[in-house]
Amino acid sequence: MDSNKGLGGIQLLLAAEQEAQTIVASARAAKIARLKQAKDEAEREIASYRAQRESEFRKKVAETSGDSGSNVKRLEEETKAKIEHLQNEASEVSPQVVAMLMKYVTTVRN
After folding, report:
1. CA distance 60 to 65
2. What are the pLDDT digits (tens) for 8-18?
3. Which of 35, 69, 72, 109 is the most exposed place for a label (fewest CB within 10 A)?
4. What does pLDDT average to over the chain?
5. In angstroms, rounded to a whole number, what is the distance separating the alpha carbons of residues 92 and 94?
6. Nearest to 102 by CA among 110, 9, 94, 46
């Protein structure tokens, strides 16, 4: 009877070990599935973010490229205005500079 009891205990231990292996295997499979799901979600989120940033970048490039003609025109107008301003100042100061130069050239110092 003791041998039957020992065999029953061994069978019970083997069954428990088999059940533990099944539980561990299913836990590993569930972990792998969760990791794969998380990776897929992260890839989708990254792709979405990348698409959004690329869209914003293209929009800014389009805005600055399309705006370049108006920037050039604005800069040309500003440059022309500054040149006119400098010419006006030079024409106002020119007689005084000429007079000063004539004074220094014609004055003799010993």
Report:
1. 8
2. 788 999 999 99
3. 109
4. 89
5. 6
6. 94
Using alpha carbons only, what angle is made at residue 97 by residues 96 and 101, rounded to the nearest 5 degrees? Answer: 120
The two three-digit tokens of residue 26, written as one number: 């299913």
CA dist., res. 38 & res. 61, Å (int): 34
Q: What is the pLDDT of residue 62?
A: 79
Give the model's pLDDT for residue 1. Answer: 46
Measured between alpha carbons, how far is 16 from 22 in angstroms, rounded to an integer? 10
Residue type, 59: K
Q: Where are the alpha helices (DSSP H) in the chain?
A: 2-66, 68-106
